[in-house]
Amino acid sequence: MKILVTLLVGAAGLVPAAAGQFTSAWFNDAWWFDGKAEFLIYEGTQARYGFQHPAEVIHILVRENFTPEQPVKADDWNRPGTSPVLKLNQILRVPTGLYVYQQMHSSFWTPENARLVKWSLTSNDSCGNTSKVATRPREAGQDAWSYGFETYWEGQMRGTAEVKDAAGGGIFYDELPARVRSLDFGKEGGAFEFPLAPTTITSKRGNLEFKPARISWKRGGEGRFEVEVKHAQGTDRFSVDAKPPHLVREWRAWEGSVLTLRHALKCAYWELHNPGDRERALADPKLRIP
Prior knowledge:
mainly beta
């Protein structure tokens, strides 16, 4: 079964997002070159079925290498031809009554130019499994996304599509936790417009239409910047550290979800998989990001 999906498109007249409005320096900073990952644990609520449900959301940011042949993690990082990417994993676990949502979304950027080259999703909501993946060439100017999906929904069982990026380069909603950290916080504030596609963290195929959005930031209290993203669905607000690496301390989403940073670690989390390692890591002051 193959479904050809029309998912588009352009947002004429907007300031191009790829033209330096979001800086690339943060994605290529030495912070990501120590062989460790940020492991950020957020607590709060997530909106499902018109209610806010208690949730834990983990954000993992780490630099890794893709293979020369395909955009997947290389087993041997020293292999000739591998290329670096910065990866953000967003891991959501949201109990909703007797139900439970378990989802992970991954974004991959080329650090030298902050260009998103791949995103993927796995989603389980106690009714079924969904997977999605979208890739595009690393080279700027080749802006057609190859999108594939497989869901448990009728009429959306399986399909592929070629998705043209927005004029000048669009941003996906699920990039925002990283993108808001890459603003030019050397300035006391600023604002610009850009094309934004909605979240892909859903069990359904989704609609990847880019629509106008506006981001603005200004200095707030407690050594932070307050960032506001106005988009077609509403307004998201982020409280971001003024000092590098510009951690997101709080995220208030347009539909009422609220996430507050409870633990921030820098560690080789892939080695901490034994019983008790979570408790030991959270208690270790050497792993904490101030």
